[in-house]
Specification:
Blueprint lengths: L3 E2 L2 H20 L6 E7 L3 H17 L2 E7 L5 H13 L5 E4 L9 H6 L12 H8 L8 H12 L8 E5 L6 H10 L3 E5 L6 H5 L4 E4 L17 E4 L3 E2 L5 E2 L4 H4 L5 E2 L6 H28 L4
Parallel strand pairs: 1-11, 2-3, 2-4, 5-6, 5-7, 7-8, 8-11
Antiparallel strand pairs: 9-10
Helix pairs in contact: 1-10, 2-10, 6-7, 6-10
Bound molecules: guanine.
Guanine (GUN) binds next to strand 4 and helix 6.
Length: about 290
């Protein structure tokens, strides 16, 4: 029997409608959540990602601005732009679309975003706090995967989760979240020897390696949940994940499509983090304005 599709787009629509209610509440206190997205160069994929983030912000009622800088922009110019956004009270969340051009020090740039505006959750303080289970913000893609599992009723505790990918954006925080929820977690990468032997033990298989076709149907345990985080454009223009969808859906119980699986969940989590940042800011203002007793 073919697997049931985990419809991330539908779940994200539902989350976005819940977020609208939080935005309405904030607007009654004179606060509109604001997101600033910084993009360097004109990579078509990055442009689409940033466009989608800004589009969903508008749908949910957020203010957003996009700062497009030249691909050869000096690091000092980018750092100055981020300093200004850190101080801008209209902006509650800041993201710099990754990857950055090679002449830039990604760590220095990402770490220059104020920790309370770090809605990507990439600041070392947020990542460190994630290890201990108490981050201000959780990275959006892994949080999107967890939310998709939760909202579709797929249990995590006590199950064997295999993560393929070791990036700071997805693989590492994904493993931490799964550990925090009581899964037994194995972290692999595209060079792991005998990968199929490990993936066939996965009750939950999360694939985030950026390699189309890395996971074939035979690598999937019958009845598993397969979460495909990859987004790859083939030479023929088709968008595919890292998993051979046709093969895997013959064995899995649940599977995410690409597109329409994890992607919309990532954007919903970014908007959620930005609304949360604005709520924290509004609460701090209220506290500051309260008369001392
Ligand atoms: N590039 C790929 N995924 C992400 C993400 O979640 N945030 C940012 N800023 N860049 C990305």
């Amino acid at each position: 029997m073919a697997a049931i599709l985990l419809d991330g787009a539908a779940v994200a629509r539902h989350i976005n409608s819940e977020l609208k209610q939080r935005v309405t509440k904030l607007s009654k206190r004179g606060v509109q959540p604001g997101l600033a997205a910084v993009q360097l160069g004109d990579n078509p994929a990055a442009r689409i990602y940033v466009h989608n983030k800004v589009r969903v912000c508008a749908e949910v009622g957020l203010y957003s601005e996009v700062h497009r800088l030249d691909a050869d922009c000096p690091e000092r110019v980018l750092l100055t732009a981020l300093d200004k956004l850190n101080l801008n009270s209209r902006i509650h969340g800041i993201i710099v679309q990754l990857p950055l051009p090679r002449h830039l020090d990604t760590a220095r740039i990402v770490q220059s975003i104020a920790v309370d505006k770090d809605v990507d959750g990439f600041n070392w303080r947020n990542l460190g706090a994630l290890v201990d289970g108490h981050p201000l913000f959780v990275p959006c893609t892994p949080q999107g995967v967890m939310t998709l599992l939760d909202r579709t009723g797929i249990p995590v505790e006590g199950r064997h989760a295999v993560v393929i990918g070791r990036s700071g954006i997805v693989g590492k925080p994904m493993a931490l979240l799964l550990i925090g929820r009581g899964a037994t977690v194995t972290v692999c990468n595209s060079k792991t020897p005998n990968l199929a032997h490990i993936t066939r033990q996965a009750d939950i298989l999360v694939v985030a390696a950026g390699r189309p076709g890395l996971v074939s149907g035979e690598m999937v345990k019958p009845g598993a949940t397969v979460i495909d985080v990859g987004i790859n454009r083939l030479p023929n223009g088709k968008l595919v994940g890292d998993v051979d969808f046709e093969g895997a859906q013959q064995r899995a119980a649940y599977i995410t499509p690409v597109p329409g699986g994890v992607g919309p969940m990532t954007v919903a989590m970014l908007v959620d983090n930005t609304v949360t940042a604005a709520e924290r800011c509004a609460a701090a203002q209220l506290l500051a304005a309260a008369p001392a007793s």
